[in-house]
Amino acid sequence: MIQSVHIFSTRESVSLAEKISQSYGMPLGKMSFFDFSDGEYQPCLEESVRGSRVFIIGSTFPPADNLMEMLLMIDAAKRASADKITAVIPYFGLARQDRKDKPRVPIGAKLVANLLTAAGATRVMTMDLHADQIQGFFEIPVDHLFASAIFINYVKSLKLDNLTIASPDMGGAKRARTYAGYLDADVVICYKERKKANNVDYMTLIGDVRGRNVILVDDMIDTAGTLTKAADILMEAGATSVRAMATHAIFSGAAYDRINDSKLEEVIVTDSIPLKNNLVSKIKVLSCAPLFGEVMNLVHNRESISKKFIM
Predict the structure, then answer these.
(1) Pairing of strands 41-45, 31-35
(2) Same fold for the domain at 5-145 and the one at 148-287?
(3) Per-residue pLDDT of the chain (311 residues; tens, 9 = 90+)
(4) Three-state SS for 79?
(5) Model-level pTM?
(6) Is the domain 5-145 a CATH 2.60.40.1180 member?
(7) From CA 249, how far away is CA 227, in angstroms rounded?
(8) Mapping DSSP to helix (H, G, I), strand (E, B) and coil, where does residue 98 land?
(9) DSSP state string for 242-257
(10) Which CATH topology does 148-287 take?
(11) Inter-residue contact 213 to 238 (CB < 8 Å)
(12) What is the C-alpha to C-alpha distance for residues 230 and 175, in angstroms, rounded to an integer?
């Protein structure tokens, strides 16, 4: 007997979920939400999922309602006797809280992992976690996909000469080396120091970029302070052009203005998080929907997904 499949979405991720379900080859499942006057809400799956495989799509960016919707929908599917429940989380929120970096702080990523499992998820599918070790926070399978499968073909289409891949910090050096290997490019690193989040106190360049076309690679762009500062340093060091490439477009605070006013020629991101402002011409959005749709098909058909792990 072939197991039926149902795909649902949290409200803020419907646009991406529709593209993923189209790539998968079936429509989104019917959902309804009852909103109480005090802001509380109750999701309802408007079709039977008994004995089915259920995919619930939703990025868990702030506000916390996005995570709560995911948890409530997983619980609803579990209580409706779904056989397998996969939380498809293109952007995994709270991933920057992956360790205790000072006393008396939480490990938010581990807490989210516990909540997803307690709610009833039997599998998690996500992309470009801020820290790879977050996979180990789960006692259920985690499919950790990489946007490099999307970005590399686009970079090749640009046909840039004298290409150099840059990391905006020491922590991204591995990611930069991996991209450089696939693109046959050099690598440089921007060393930075910061005393508090979203505020770079000092940055310097390690490597030579004179006469090079540089692409900065990162997992996310929040306020864009680091990337725009790195772009300034790279151009001052003699780079011909500077682009930035990051999976998750958080774009908080003055990010859009900083990008628009920066020396960056182009900022390439995915649609894991919906953009709040589509008026900045420098921003190029590549969809991650085909990647998730294909991997969901492979998972459902019990086929290997290792070929999708480019990085």
Answers:
(1) antiparallel
(2) yes
(3) 568 999 999 999 999 999 999 999 999 999 999 999 999 999 999 999 999 999 999 999 999 999 999 999 999 999 999 999 999 999 999 999 999 989 999 999 999 999 999 999 999 999 999 999 999 999 999 999 999 989 999 999 999 999 999 998 888 889 999 999 999 999 999 886 655 665 555 678 999 999 999 999 999 999 999 899 999 999 999 999 999 999 999 999 999 999 999 999 999 999 999 998 877 799 999 999 999 999 999 999 999 988 776 65
(4) helix
(5) 0.94
(6) no
(7) 12
(8) coil
(9) EEEEEEEE---TTHHH
(10) Rossmann fold (3.40.50)
(11) no
(12) 16
Query: How long, in residues, is the chain?
Result: 311
Q: Quote the Cα angle for 214-217-222, to 5°.
A: 120
Residue 41: which H helix or E strand, with range? Answer: strand 41-45
Tokens 């790539």 -> residue: 23
- Residues assigned a catalytic role: 192
How many angstroms separate the Cα of 35 from the Cα of each of 17, 32, 100? Answer: 22, 10, 36
Break the chain into its structural domains and give their ranges: 5-145, 148-287
Per the structure block, which two tokens stand in for 248? Answer: 């998750």
